[in-house]
Specification:
Blueprint lengths: L4 E3 L5 H9 L4 E3 H4 L6 H10 L3 E3 L3 H8 L1
Parallel strand pairs: 1-2, 1-3
């Protein structure tokens, strides 16, 4: 079973819809109203919600993770 996932704004909404229809707990930046937040705020938010973050912004997220 997958943990809850938080989808960053660079992830297509159709993926959220498909995962959600498969019973996976998905939260998007649009749903959370965090679209304009910077990468650090996105990572902090996902962590505070106990969610994995899914993004295509690997360079900035790796820097923040380190």
């Amino acid at each position: 079973m997958l943990p809850p996932i938080y989808l960053d704004e660079c992830i297509d909404r159709r993926l959220a819809d498909n995962l959600s229809s498969d019973g996976i707990d998905i939260l998007t930046v649009a749903d959370a109203e965090t679209i304009s937040d910077d990468d650090e705020a996105q990572l902090t938010f996902s962590t505070s919600q106990g969610r994995l973050i899914m993004t295509q912004n690997q360079i900035d997220v790796r820097r923040l993770h380190a």
